[in-house]
User: Fold these one by one.
Assistant:
Number 1:
Amino acid sequence: MSRESVRYCAVLAPVMALLLWTLPLAGQSGAKTDEWRSYGGSVANRRYSSLDQINASNFNKLEVAWRFKTDSLGPRPEFNLEGTPLMANGVLYATAGTRRAVVALDAATGEMLWMFSLNEGKRGEAAPRKLSGRGLSYWTDGKSERIFYVTQGYQLVALDAKIGRPIPDFGKDGMVDLKREDDQAMDLITGEIGLHAAPAVAGNTIIVGAAHLPGGAPKSRRNEKGFVRGYDVRTGKRLWIFHTIPMLGEFGNDTWEKESWSYTGNTGVWGQITVDEEGGRVYLPVEDSTGDYYGGHRPGANLFSSSLVALDLKTGKRVWHYQLIHHDIWDWDIPCAPILADITVNGRTIKAVAQPTKQGWVYVFDRATGQPVWPIEERAVEKGDVPQEWYSPTQPFPTRPPAFERQGVSIDDLIDFTPELRAEAVKLVSNYKLGPIFTPAVVSSRERYLGTLMMPNTSGGANWQGGALDPETNILYVFSNTEVATLGLVHNEKLSDMNYIRGVAPDPNAKTPSPAGGGGGEGGGGLNIQGLPIVKPPWGRITALDLNRGEMAWQIAHGDTPDAVRNHPALKGLSIPRTGRTGRIGVLVTKTLLIAGEGGFFTTPSGQRGAMLRAYDKATGKEVGAVYMPAPQTGSPITYMLNGKQYLVLAISGAGYSGEYVAFRLPAVPS
Amino acid sequence: MSRESVRYYALVPVIALLLWTLPVSGQSGAKRDEWRSYGSDVGNTRYSPLDQINASNFSKLEVAWRFKTDNLGPRPEFNLQATPLMVNGVLYAPAGTRRAVVALDAATGELLWSYSFNEGKRAEVAPRRLSGRGVAYWTDGKAERIIYVTPGYQLIALDAKTGRPIPSFGNNGIVDLKREDDQAMDLITGDIGLHAPPMVARDTIIVGAAHTPGGAPKSRRNEKGYVRGYDVRTGKRLWIFHTIPTLGEFGNDTWENESWSYTGNTGVWGAITVDEDLGHVYLPVENATGDYYGGHRPGANLFSSGLVALDIKTGKRIWHYQFIHHDIWDWDVPCASILTDITVNGRTIKAIAQPTKQGWVYVFDRVTGQPVWPIEERPVARGDVPGEWYSPTQRFPTRPPAFERQGVSTDDLIDFTPELRAEAIKIASRYKMGPIFTPPVVSRWEGPLGTLILPAVSGGANWPGGALDPETKIFYIFSNTEMTPLGLVRDKEKSDMDYIRGTARDPNAPAPKPGGAGAGGGEGGGGVTVQGLPLVKPPWGRITAIDLNRGEMVWQIAHGETSDAVRNHPALKGLNIPRTGRTGRIGVLVTKTLLIAGEGGFFMTPSGQRGAMLRAYDKATGNELGAVYMPAPQTGSTMTYMLNGRQYLVLAIGGAGYSSEYVAFRLPSVPS
């Protein structure tokens, strides 16, 4: 580069950045600028960037620009850092550490510009959703800039983005106590409600969801309800509330028989919320209700549990809804952001919303009307025999696009690397009930079934990281895990006032019963044979779905084969294709690439323990590059351009490697 | 542990709170569980009465937490020299290449707040960058402040609770130290800064000054390093002390030819000590412009390279003692003097002990400035550098004995094998050798290339200084045994000085590149080595214990395991070489039970990991009692405190390939 052009860059680049910065944001077409201003790139949650400096020819040359270690942002280091940072105006904002601090970093160097941390004492310690969370939000009116986040103790905090201090005229000294004004009474310390997701900020409204303790073995059928609220971005005043469990007289209340709406809780929105700013719509991915696997205390379809709900951004009034699972008893609640896509189906342009799910389908709707783009059929499903359970006679089955995950378990799904392993697998599953998707849980029994084998797992399939969408091709990309859950129910009065909670029947021949009595608890774990998963690989995959056609474009295993499989004595001599590895892997689409890091550690090609950040051809899924990371991806990658350089930033962490944000960029001298 | 004792421990914070309201005792080590001043107390003893960590359990220490400093600046730092403070359960420290200040939970290392000031160009051109050596704490029992000096030489007062500047202090919490300094200077480029923490005592902040290292200054003119006192509440300047006396002031006549008017430096870059009872401030003053050539500053150059006592209220000089007249060795006073009340021949003396680069600890009655043991003026060799002014005599303490070797003779050269010895003699033959105070020479290719001086120009002792056990009056200090080849060259392209440090070039070597180093002036020099081995005999890093009641050495040991380069050296194969010590900047800590010091430099530790050891010694004998692994060498001095019933050791570590961090050690939760 000549000296002349060096001068050009030095002088004009900041000016240009400033000019870009004053342009209005486009809400739903990926980041228009060089920045990353919202959790999912934009409130349309496409995880798309039009940047192209990093491409197939140079991806392997990426170097670490900086690292930001989060150990000291809390009383102890964190080993599962799930945050997605934002980048606005050259500053990177992120949540970090076991106290869920907020940090502002120089996006070029990683230098910490400020840190804000709120010690909530017992309220933080008792919180159902601890650690650093998944992100935060940014707002500007062109002059002032604010950062919003939700604390572990469920308080909404507004910070001045320049200095990291609470905004005095927002709420009470910069904070809104989300345990108040929630149309239900709860203890401010112990009330079981919190949030990992970033609040959504659109226009001048902040939209806040709710999460609870995982509910496989709740102490009670009664719990806090996860209502969703809108707040004024300037004052913190509550603008509206949406009752995800309808109150008496509200639409859908009759789907909660025996007044179960009154005491049932959960049914929050713990996934990321999406907004169509142009259409003035908020899209809520709603979770399931109290009792993840037993719904006997909440007879009925349970609207709006496990539903996609569209609200009016201004009023919070419901515009449409679609329940993806009636009376969910699989914990297949909706885990992630719906994605806005303007698709063309048979020549007709449809402003669509696409919802990836744990159960392996992407449900696609006209986002204005809630009409399915392709038929979704109500089909009869098996009724179970758990006492007092209420079973929905039918469930919705999308006809397009095809599922991105395997659904249901049959003998054909079991590993067959060798006849011995296959035989062992078949023997092992004989203690479990097998069946297609929506096969319900069983009461765990030593005589019949210990549980139902279900696939996708109760954690998905997809999970909180969701998918990404290329607005040029309308191809949706999603990573998913192929795992089996064993789902049995037990009765345990010591642990719960529910009739049934998740658990495994105790072995009558065991000398000492487990301390929990009937063996209730989250438990479950994965079934394995000699340490190998019981189902065939790939165990981690990325799927590309063409949303114009409702078809799968390609599917690949993501993640190199784990050491435990590569070095397994029973597999010696076998040639096993890449198996993929499980994880919570958010993918990033750019103009040039599909980018995703691996989950889990393995011995990388350089011989170092770590994981690879991989780049794929968007059209074919063919790998085009990979760079070493010292630990697996645990937060979704973002990208931005600063001073003429494109950066990739993601959170990595894992066993023995505490959480950090790591930034990659190309070397200083292009070669 | 019974439930009863658990409950007891829950009360400890209450007790700590009670202790916290007691007045600070100035000069006898931390009386309680905290570490409130850079050197533990304003008497800089680096002593703590804590005893939970002792000889029997030292090796069981575990890492309680780490605080990585990488992101407190635009790039990571690899030489973090600071000593943190601990007050009321909060640890305060500077960190990172921006010299941020951080407050950490002292039990967990959690970041409570950080403050960072981006000074732009002013910091980029600053003579003293990086994170510095520490911060100061002040309280009136209610308000608490953290006070520090930025790389750009601004004094900042922060609210210790929030980390925000105190609006009523200076200009919104900031005093520009480049102003009101009785000299004009450019606010951006003025060559002045400070690594040392400001001293805070009796509601007064005392701030020293440092400059760019002065072996090859661009000019004989430079900023002067005056010392000032400020009101801790308002930031108002209370007084100034001219380390170079202006016209009409005492000592001005020691600067001949009006050299006082343009000569600079002569600052106080070491830590300052205070006797709060006497109301005295003790300044370790550095040398004047031209570290190795004083031809432009003829005369003894008061108060350079001396110890000066001031009245803390007025800044007026009470007494002074110059250690080196007209210093041309850069043996400026690098570290805090230490206050101790000793008993000499039955007489109690309020004493002050000043460790130095040149290897002596000078001991005075701190009330009067009288030497405790005679210090003799003895004639020394005069050199022949044109234009230089030589002091006919220098001062030689008679007690205690030097803690470092002084001067170089053939006997000092390595003799591991006859071959190495012969090679060393051959290399040394190109240099001038002689006793301490042998002056530098003009470098000639045909010889001498320079004077070999020992201790090196960086000491002997340097900024870490020493520590003192108030129970036994034994003074402990780490020092390097290193040699500097000291030659002078003329280089008008680089400097308006007649001579600067440099080495003559081989006249037969190809001409230097245009725009290159000319005659080879510059800091340069480096060590002289034989096949990569130091030219002088080990130990190369040592700790010395000196009884200040008797003025005698108690013991001396090599500190630091033999380096890999020596252990694996082919020329030394089969030889049995005792521990050689390793060089470093090693501040030592004395507790009720132990002498504690980390190693400098990396080596392959006993566990097979690259790193360095934190070692504990018997205070009376120097016998090693324990050692724990650290992933990188000590770069900042160790401090200790007690919190929730557990004693912590915290120090800064870092080095090549290992960016800096504070690491905290404590015993495992279940005593075993």
Note: DSSP finds five helices and 41 strands in chain B.
Number 2:
Amino acid sequence: MPEPPGTPFTEFIGAMLDEAGEGYSRLTLTCGPDHLGLDGHVHGGILTALMDSSVGIAISRLRGTEARRRAPHATIEMNTTFLARADEGDDLVVEGRITLSTDAIVTGESEVRLASGKVLARGRLTFAIIRRSG
Amino acid sequence: MRGLEALQTTPHATVDMNVSFLSGAVPGDVVECEAKTLRVGRSVCFAEAEVRNRSNGRIVAKGRFTFAILSRGYA
């Protein structure tokens, strides 16, 4: 059963969390008029935000609430390739996975697809585990 | 730089984006973003952008972008 992803910004853009497990998450979004850019297609920032969230959630599920509270993780690097455009009315499916997990750094990858399976964008992300000093 | 007419006949679209996030911003902070083109060719544009936090002067994020200039009839 889809649920709100739990992050204010991700909920603000209208994404729903379809599935999440340790090191994996899947978000969905139906594109509306507020998601469009100047050219009338879905703004790339929507796709990057969803990919960032999908990997962030995958990491949260792997690390657990307590570890995240003690040392939160934050995106420090994101490399994105845009392959095709999305339009109003399209249903986006975004999957995020962890590719490496260490004490200090976690890397992941994400893909945005249409419901038909067509890939729109791919992202590689690096997160830092932020340990407070002292 | 390309002008409104060029934008309508041959729009540009992001094909690659690499961003480093150097620091965070919290509610109340004002951030500013400055973007500049590095090279505008006939089919590809290279650009970079920087987000700064006006509250503390720190760089929040730095990005490098590649845009494709799409020919007419692009679906």
Note: Residues 4-9 of chain B form the longest helix (6 residues).
